[in-house]
C-alpha cells in the first residue's frame, strides 16, 4: 500500500466532517439518533467495485451499514472494523466552535464525535474503500460496520444485529474504539490496546418522605433533604482498591521505576499516588482500579410550595472484572450506611465487565505493524472504563480490541477530557495514521498464510 499520506488525510477529513454535520445525536430514546443520515452518506461514499453493501434498520431511522470484501478462503480469519455513527448530546454554549459544524481549524476537525468515535468510523470507511478500489483480494473476509446506537446500550445497533443478523456481522476478530494514544514512558513509547471494559449497572433509588406545606419546613420528613444526604454519601464513598490482571499487565509494561510501579500495584498505596497525578490521568487510573458510583440524575417535587414525599435518583455504576451484583449492592449499602434502610433499590440490567486475551494473531498484527510509524514502541493492554460494543462480540467468544493510531499531538490527558466533553476535535495527522493503519492491519492479518 502506497504511502499516500496527504490523500488519506484529506479524504478522511471530508468523510469525518460529513458525519459530524449529520448530527446523529442519541439521547437514549428510540426516535433519536437518526443514523440513517450517516449510513446514507457512507453508502454513497463506499459504493463501487470490490465491496458488497447492505443496510439494516432496527427501528425507523436507526440503520446500520455493513460493507464486505469477501475472502477467498472460508477457513481464513475474518476481521470486523466497527465504528458507531451516533453521538451524545451537547451544550453548544460551552463550545468555542459549532459542535456540528465540522470545521477544519489549524489542522484539527472540530465537532461532537470527533473523538468518540467518528474519527475512527471515518478512517475505517476510507481504508475499506481504498482497499476495495485497489483490488484487495484477501484470504480472509474484511467487514466494515457503521453501527447505530452505541451511545445508548446498543439495543438498536450491535445487539440487534447479533440477535437478528448474526451471520452478517460475526467475525473472528473485532476492532473498535478507543486505544492507540501514544504514551511516553521511561522504557519507550507505549500504545494502549483496549482489551477489556468495565461493567455497567444502572441503579435507580427512591427516597420517600412525607408531604407538607412548603411554608412550614420545621421538622418535616422532606424526601429531597434525605436524598441530598444520600447523594453526598455516595459522592464521598471510597470503594475498595482492586488490582486486577489487566491493570497489573498495563502498569508492569510501562517501565516505570519501582518507586512508581509498586504504589500503583498496591491496594494500600494507590489512592495516595492518584492524588499526585494530572487530573485526567488520576481519574482514569482511579476508575481502572475501583468500582465507581456516580449520581447523575434526580427528579423531585410537584410544586414549589409542597414538601416532596418522594425523590427518584439515578446512579451510574461501573464495575471491575470479577464483580457480581451482590458485590456492588454490598458496596452501595456500605456507602449509604443507616440511610440504606430509607432507600428503595430498583436495579436495572447488569452488564458485567468483559475482556479478551492478548495471545492472539490480532494482537501480534497490531504489535508488528505499528512499528512502521512508531519504531520501538510496545502495545500494552488497557481497560476502558466506559462501555463499547465490543462486549456483544466477546460474549460470542470473539476477540475484540479497541484501537486506533494517533499522532503525538494528542495527549492521554486531552483525549480523556474530550470524551463526551466540550471542544472535541481531532488532528488530521491522526486521521491519516488510523486510515493507513487499517489498510496495513487488513493486509497483515487477512492475507498471511499459516
Q: Extract low-pLDDT stretches.
A: none
| Number of beta-strand segments | 18
User: Structural class, from secondary structure content?
Assistant: alpha+beta
- Computed over alpha carbons, the radius of gyration is 23 Å
Q: What is the name of the CATH architecture of the largest domain?
A: 3-Layer(aba) Sandwich
Largest sheet: 6 strands, mixed
Q: Please tell me the total number of domains.
A: 2
Biggest β-sheet: strands ordered side by side in the sheet:
1-2-6-3-7-17
- Helical fraction: 25-40%
What is the CATH class name of the largest domain?
Answer: Alpha Beta
Tell me, briefly, the overall form: globular
Present the secondary structure layout.
Blueprint: H1 5-21, H2 36-46, E1 52-59, E2 62-69, E3 79-84, E4 104-105, E5 108-110, H3 118-133, E6 142-147, H4 158-164, H5 166-169, E7 173-176, E8 190-197, E9 199-208, E10 212-213, H6 223-236, H7 245-253, H8 258-264, H9 270-274, H10 279-289, E11 292-300, E12 306-307, E13 310-319, H11 325-336, E14 343-351, E15 354-355, H12 361-369, E16 378-384, H13 390-394, E17 399-402, H14 412-418, E18 425-427, H15 428-447
Parallel strand pairs: 3-6, 3-7, 7-17, 8-16
Antiparallel strand pairs: 1-2, 2-6, 4-5, 5-18, 8-15, 9-13, 9-14, 10-12, 11-13
Describe it.
The chain is an alpha+beta fold and 450 residues long. The chain has two domains: 277 residues, 3-Layer(aba) Sandwich (Aminopeptidase), CATH 3.40.630; 154 residues, Alpha-Beta Plaits. The protein is built from 15 helices and 18 strands. A six-stranded mixed β-sheet has the order 1-2-6-3-7-17, with helices on both faces. A hairpin with a 2-residue loop joins β4 and β5. α10 crosses α14. The protein starts with a helix and ends with a helix. The relative contact order is 0.19. The mean pLDDT is 95.
Amino acid at each position: 500500500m502506497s504511502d499516500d499520506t496527504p490523500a488519506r488525510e484529506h479524504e478522511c477529513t471530508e468523510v469525518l466532517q460529513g458525519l459530524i454535520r449529520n448530527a446523529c445525536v442519541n439521547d437514549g430514546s428510540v426516535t433519536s439518533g437518526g443514523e440513517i443520515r450517516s449510513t446514507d452518506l457512507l453508502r454513497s461514499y463506499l459504493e463501487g467495485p470490490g465491496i458488497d453493501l447492505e443496510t439494516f434498520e432496527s427501528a425507523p431511522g436507526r440503520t446500520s451499514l455493513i460493507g464486505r470484501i469477501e475472502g477467498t478462503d472460508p477457513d481464513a480469519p475474518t476481521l470486523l472494523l466497527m465504528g458507531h455513527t451516533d453521538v451524545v448530546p451537547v451544550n453548544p454554549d460551552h463550545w468555542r466552535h459549532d459542535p456540528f459544524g465540522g470545521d477544519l481549524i489549524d489542522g484539527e476537525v472540530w465537532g461532537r464525535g470527533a473523538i468518540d468515535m467518528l474519527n475512527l468510523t471515518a478512517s475505517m470507511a476510507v481504508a475499506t474503500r481504498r482497499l476495495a478500489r485497489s483490488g484487495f483480494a484477501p484470504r480472509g473476509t474484511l467487514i466494515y460496520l457503521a453501527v447505530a446506537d452505541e451511545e445508548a446500550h446498543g439495543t438498536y445497533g450491535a445487539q440487534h444485529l447479533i440477535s437478528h443478523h448474526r451471520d452478517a456481522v460475526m467475525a473472528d476478530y473485532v476492532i473498535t474504539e478507543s486505544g492507540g494514544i501514544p504514551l511516553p514512558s521511561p522504557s519507550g513509547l507505549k500504545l494502549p490496546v483496549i482489551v477489556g471494559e468495565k461493567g455497567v449497572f444502572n441503579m435507580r433509588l427512591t427516597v420517600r418522605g412525607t408531604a407538607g406545606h412548603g411554608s412550614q419546613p420545621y421538622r418535616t420528613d422532606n424526601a429531597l433533604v434525605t436524598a441530598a444526604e444520600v447523594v453526598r454519601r455516595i459522592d464521598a464513598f471510597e470503594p475498595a482498591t482492586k488490582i486486577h490482571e489487566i491493570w497489573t499487565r498495563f502498569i508492569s509494561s510501562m517501565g516505570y521505576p519501582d518507586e512508581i510501579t509498586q504504589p500503583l500495584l498496591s491496594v494500600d498505596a494507590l489512592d495516595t499516588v492518584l492524588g499526585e497525578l494530572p487530573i485526567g490521568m488520576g481519574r482514569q487510573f482511579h476508575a481502572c482500579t475501583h468500582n465507581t458510583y456516580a449520581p447523575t440524575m434526580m427528579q423531585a417535587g410537584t410544586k414549589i410550595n409542597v414538601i416532596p414525599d418522594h425523590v427518584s435518583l439515578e446512579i451510574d455504576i461501573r464495575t471491575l472484572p470479577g464483580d457480581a451484583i451482590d458485590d456492588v449492592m454490598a458496596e452501595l449499602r456500605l456507602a449509604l450506611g443507616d440511610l440504606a434502610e430509607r432507600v428503595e433499590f430498583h436495579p436495572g440490567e447488569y452488564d458485567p465487565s468483559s475482556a479478551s486475551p492478548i495471545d492472539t494473531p490480532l494482537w501480534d498484527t497490531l504489535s508488528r505493524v505499528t512499528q512502521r510509524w512508531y519504531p520501538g514502541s510496545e502495545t500494552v493492554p488497557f481497560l476502558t472504563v466506559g462501555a463499547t460494543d465490543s462486549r456483544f462480540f466477546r460474549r460470542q467468544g470473539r476477540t475484540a480490541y479497541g484501537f486506533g493510531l494517533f499522532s503525538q499531538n494528542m495527549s492521554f490527558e486531552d483525549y480523556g477530557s474530550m470524551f463526551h466533553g466540550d471542544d472535541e476535535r481531532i488532528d488530521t495527522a491522526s486521521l491519516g495514521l488510523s486510515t493507513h493503519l487499517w489498510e496495513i492491519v487488513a493486509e497483515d492479518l487477512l492475507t498471511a498464510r499459516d
